[in-house]
User: Which sequence fits this backbone?
């Protein structure tokens, strides 16, 4: 069962994303720092420019988030929702069908990989 998305303020990488500090987030990830970004609440957050390669976003909530141009092809999105998010130019894992993405975008259903 997927956890309810939460504000993980005790998670340093999550705090960086919530504050819009994308460059610092990417620097820390490049330095090998990883965190738990599963079941996070990213509602309305501008995430453009993040390096999402290999991140597990399972169960996360991206309602009305700005995801434009993000490459999620190597990210885990099982159980996440992208309801009303901006997704122009975003890449999703091959395991997600266009219908699955559309249902989540329009109706808030959880993504199933």
Assistant:
């Amino acid at each position: 069962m997927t956890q309810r998305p939460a504000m993980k303020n005790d998670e340093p990488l999550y705090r960086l994303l919530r504050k819009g500090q994308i460059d610092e987030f990417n620097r820390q990830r490049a330095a090998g720092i990883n965190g738990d970004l599963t079941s996070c609440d990213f509602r309305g957050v501008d995430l453009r420019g993040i390096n999402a390669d290999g991140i597990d976003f399972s169960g996360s909530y991206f309602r009305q988030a700005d995801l434009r141009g993000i490459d999620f092809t190597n990210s885990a999105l099982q159980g996440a929702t992208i309801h009303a998010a901006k997704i122009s130019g975003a890449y999703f894992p091959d395991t997600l069908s266009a219908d699955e993405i559309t249902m989540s975008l329009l109706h808030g259903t959880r993504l199933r990989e």
